[in-house]
Each structure stands twice: as C-alpha cells, then as structure tokens.
Amino acid sequence: MINISEIMENNPVTISPYVSVKWACEIMEKHRFGGLPVVNDGLIVGILTSRDVRRCHPNRLVADAMIKNVLTLSPETSLWEAREFIETNCIEHLLIANESKLLGIITKSLLNLEFGKQVDTLTGLYRSDYLYYMAARLLKEGIEIAVLFIDLDDFGVIDKERGHVTGDIILKQVAEAFKEVVDDNKDYLCRYAGDEFAIVTSSCLKDVRKLGVILLDLLTKQQWPNGINLNASIGIAGGRRGQLRPGDERRTVSELINLASLGSARAKKNNARIVFVGQVEVIEDEI
User: Fold this and answer.
1) How far apart are the C-alpha atoms of 273 and 214, rounded to whole Å?
2) pLDDT-flagged residues of the chain (< 70)
C-alpha cells in the first residue's frame, strides 16, 4: 500500500510560537500557505492556520493564536487511512510526525489529488492499492476475508487480433458488469492490473464460490463487440486463517492475494473455471 511518507512534503516551513502573528501571516502570504506547523526545540507544539490568523490581533504571539491540540499521523499510515482521518476530523492540514518530531506535512488538496490517481481512468474502478487497504482493514476488525482473483482468458489475443480500442471497450464492459452483481456492503472490487480484476469480500467461502460462478456466467451471457466469446479463470483464497498478530495484516493480505493469483493461473492451466486455494490444503473445483 502507498504510505503518506511517499507523498508528504518533507522539511516543511515551520514557525516559532514566540514570533508575532503578523510575521506568521507574512510568511503564509509569501509562500501561499494555508497553515504553518509551530515547532519549538524541534518538537511540534501547535499549528497555525489562516483562520486562526484572522481571529487574532497581529501583534499577539503565535502561541496565543495557534491550535495546541495537534492531530498527527505516523509516516507508515496508508493513503486511505489518512484520507479517512482528514475527513473524520475536518482538517485541511495533516502533520506527519514521529513522537512529536515533525517529519512532513500533507494538505487535504494534495491528498485528494493523490487519491484521484488510485482510480483507474478506463474502468472507473479503484486500483489494487484499494484492495490491500480494505483487506487489511477488515482483518484488523477481526473479520475473515476471501480474495477472488479474476484473470480474463486469452485477452492478449483479443488485443492483438481486434486492437486495443476493442480491448478497452471490453474491459470497461467487464467492470460495469461486475459492479452490477457485487454487494457494496461486503464485496470490494478493483482492477488489479491489465486484464486482471480482484475482489476482497467478507462473505463465507460458500457464498464466495457462488459469486465466482455468477461472475463467470455473467461473462458468457454478455454481448461482446464483434461477437467475441469472453471467459475468465478465477482463483479464490481465504476462509479460516491462523491466529493473526497485530501488525501482520498486510503480510496476510499479500499472502492471500498471491494464493488467489496462483489459483487463477492453475485454473487457466487445468481448464478449471475456479480453483480454491487454502492456506494448507489446495482443492481444485471444476465447475
């Protein structure tokens, strides 16, 4: 997953709590900042925003005008968690810190700009980073998950014989069809890469299998451009996992996605529409 350390502004301009609000205002206007971290002896003691400046006499000290209860996040925080944090707390500037030591700053506008990059422009689906985030979030909440990895069959051949424009039309149509059947309350769909889609779900394995069948049947019933027949291979991984230690969520998610990916490859190789892959036992199920 993308961490905020990858997008934050390093070495941000800061201000002392013992200078005047007028001086702070001049710095903010010069750099066109909407807020300034207030630092004393290398540690964060507050944040001064343009709103705070307007409410305070210019001759007062920054210490009198700043917000003292500063909300910070660690640099390991994911992009998705940071966005949720900003929206929940209704803040415009997010300070990144390690034990009150300022490491960087992110504005809401920058975060939204970066967040927009996580949406696939062709299909309108989130990219793979969303899958990792939702899966890790569910695991943190103690919810068992499963991953469906859907690989379109012979899509490279379609691209070569019919052209990339036709291929793009098909990918958009696949995404729209999948969005119609997933349950937004428990199924989280993304375009993983190229001709691969993935879903993380909190459904039981029995229902996950049904969803896989529905997705495959959906592809065979669709009217595709130029009379193309489109099929896919699906790998499913999940179900009961071992005891999860706090902080192991990302590793577990990566393991599940990798297993599901291997399952789709096995399904394609063995001409089995769906392959279930467990942590210990591997069961191939031809439908």
Assistant:
1) 12
2) 239-248, 278-287
For domain 4-116, which CATH number applies: 3.40.50.1220, 2.60.40.1120, 3.10.580.10, 3.60.21.10? 3.10.580.10
The reply to whether 128-285 shares the fold of 4-116 is: no
Each domain of the chain, given as residue ranges in start order, spans 4-116, 128-285
pLDDT attached to residue 283: 37
Residue 78's DSSP bridge partners are 3
Residue 35 to residue 48: CA distance in whole angstroms: 5
Say if residues 94 and 75 touch (Cβ distance below 8 Å): no
Return d(Cα 43, Cα 37) in angstroms, integer: 10
Residues 6+ apart with CB under 8 A from 208: 146, 148, 201, 236, 238
CATH says 128-285 is which class? alpha beta
What is the tens place of the pLDDT at every residue in 129-154? 999 999 988 988 888 899 999 999 99
* Beta carbons of 87 and 67 less than 8 angstroms apart: no
**What are the tens digits of pLDDT across the range 189-199?**
999 999 999 99
Cβ atoms of 127 and 80 within 8 Å: the answer is no
Q: CB under 8 Å to 241, separation ≥6 — which residues?
A: 144, 252, 279
